Each structure stands twice: as C-alpha cells, then as structure tokens.
Amino acid sequence: MLSNPESGIKGIISNIQHMTVHDGPGVRTEIFFKGCPLRCRWCSNPEGLSPEPEVGVFGHDCIGIDVCGACLKACPTGALMAGENRIMAIDRQVCKKCLRCASACPNNTLVVYGDRMTVDQVMDEILKDRSIYMRTGGGVTLSGGDCLYQPEFVRQLLEACKKARIHTCVESEVVCATSVLDSILPYTDLFITDIKHMDPYKHRDYTGFSNRQIKKNIEYLALKSTPLIVRLPIIPGCNDDEKNLRETAEFLTQTMRGNLLQIQIIPYRPLGIEKYQALGIDYPMKEQSKTKPGEYLERIRKLAEEFRSYGLPAQAGTTVKS
Fold it and tell me: Which of 150, 192, 175, 177 has the alpha carbon at shortest distance from 319?
C-alpha cells in the first residue's frame, strides 16, 4: 500500500472493474464513482447517479421470506416491500439508507451500490493489475457516474497513480468549474468526454443540464496538451438529426487542436434496464429500447465517414489505439 499523507479523505465508489479494454489504451482497471450532475435519459449506469450509497433489489434471487426474512428483521423503518414470498422493492420515501438490510441478506437479493474507500484502499486494487498494465500499455480509468463529482478525491487518486508510474485516464461529462480541470490535468495522461447535443435547451431537456459549461470546458481541454477523446453517443430520436450532427461536426472542426486523438461515434444500446428496476427508477427510454443495435450500426459507420469528411479523426465504436 502506498503511503499517502492525505489518505484520510474517502471517495464513494460504485464498482471497481478489472481487465477492461474500452476506456483507454491497453488492459485497464476502471474505477466507477458515485454521483453525477446529469440525468441523461439513456444513462446505462443508474447506480452511479446518486452520490450516496444505496441498495438495489434483485427479487428473483430472494430465497424466500418464509425461510429467511433476515432483511425484514434488520430494516428499522419497514421500508422493504414483499410479494410472492420474496422481497420485491424498497419504499425509497421511507428508507433511511442505513444499508442494514443488505448486510443481513445472505445472498445477492439486496446489493449495495457505493463503498466509502480511501485513496490507499483504491490503490491496493489498482496495484493488483500493475504487471498487466506494463505488458499491455494499460492503466487506470476513472469513470462514473461522473468522477469529477468528487474532485478532491480524484485529484489525490490520480496523483498516487502517477507516483506509481501508472497511466491515467479520466472519463467525465465535464460539468464542473474549469479550475477542477486545472487541478487534475497535471496527473492525467488521457481525457475522455462526450457531446450529447449542441442545442443548450434540448441538452437540458435530455440531460437536465445546459451544455454551456460543458462546451466551454471542451474548448478548454482542446487548448491543453493532454490527449483527448471525444465521444458522440447517437440516440435515436434525440440527437441523431442532420442539423445537430452538422453543428457538432462544425464545433469540433473549429475547436479541436493537435491533442485530439479520436472522435468516437457510439450507438445507443439499451443497457442497465435491470439496474433501473432494482433501484425503483422508471427507465426513460422505453421506446428507444426497441431499437435493434445491429440495424443501427450501418448508420454509425456512415456517420463516422461523414465526420471524417470534415477532417476529424472519427471512428465507429470505442477502440482506443495504444
């Protein structure tokens, strides 16, 4: 474990995924942070939205209230909701997020999303894969939610990674003050962000937040020397109209500098629906979820060609060249 004089600060981590290959070069360890200021309708990681630890309910794994019932006994507020001899949901208005029910559950019916960890604890996980980073040119990617929702913890973690000579990548929506970017860029080897819509009002409609600060920060990142990847999630019926796509290409053409590595055109995929159900959240993309990804991939390839015609390094998908 690395010695870190500031390691008393704790971040809230929803997941640590080893051996990932899509969010940065080589084989990586990806740290998913809790908390995000946006509420994108197509978000596939709803467990990352809230900044606090919370419990997801997977009722199909319940072994039965008649033979167990430990969670019901542990809950101090009676927030657990049962049906057909199983725990089915949580009354979120009553729940105090004490997490006692999940601690009492003997299997994976009740899953806690969010673990309070120190920098040293996260580094212990990261260093398990250090030899793999060395062999593959990989490293660590901080994601979410939005990792910059916890900026000071992220800064300390990135600094610890750099001291350990580990490649670092930050994936963020950049809904933050520019000063936050200044604090982390000295320890960041690669930055990944995305553009969801060029119109500030439609952006607010689809994500709950205007894009003005986001565009400002993307322009700021373009001026820096840190290698940058910009992703364009293409969502049917939301941002895939010709006007928005043309304005996006023009913005990128005018903004980007030599540090732009790739424009990645990403197809919408209806992921995370089970996690929405587990958290008691309505999935907001029910109509779009009927879209078959295979039918949409040809359009994604053609869009990549169109963006390349603007002189942009566009590609279909998320493969990152080492």
Answer: 192
pLDDT digits (tens, 9 = 90+) for 166-198: 999 999 999 999 999 999 999 999 999 999 999
Separation of CA 214 from chain center: 16
* 10-50+115-316 and 54-113 agree in CATH topology: no
Give CB contacts under 8 A, 24+ apart, made by 74-83. 74/100, 74/101, 74/103, 74/104, 75/100, 75/101, 76/100, 83/59
d(CA 197, CA 203) in angstroms, rounded, equals: 5
| Topology at the third CATH level for domain 54-113 | Alpha-Beta Plaits (3.30.70)
**Rg, the chain, Cα only:** 21
pLDDT at 52 over 50: yes
Q: What is the pLDDT of residue 293?
A: 59
Task: Say whether 99 sits in a helix, a strand or coil.
Answer: coil
Instruction: Give the ranges where the chain is alpha helix by DSSP (H).
Output: 70-74, 100-104, 119-127, 130-136, 151-163, 178-184, 200-207, 212-223, 242-255, 273-278, 293-308
The domain locations on the chain are: 10-50+115-316, 54-113
| Residue 86, φ and ψ in degrees, nearest 5 | -135, 155
d(C-alpha 142, C-alpha 144), whole Å: 7
Give, to the nearest 10 degrees, the angle between helix 293-308 and helix 242-255.
Answer: 40
CATH number attached to the domain at 10-50+115-316 = 3.20.20.70
User: What are 73-87's pLDDT values in tens digits?
Assistant: 999 999 999 999 999
Which residue has tokens 């979120």? 92
Interatomic CA distance for residues 284 and 256, integer angstroms: 33
DSSP string, 71-82: HHHH-SS--EEE
- Residue 297's pLDDT is 82
Would you state the structure tokens that stand for residue 52, as one six-digit string? Answer: 């606090």
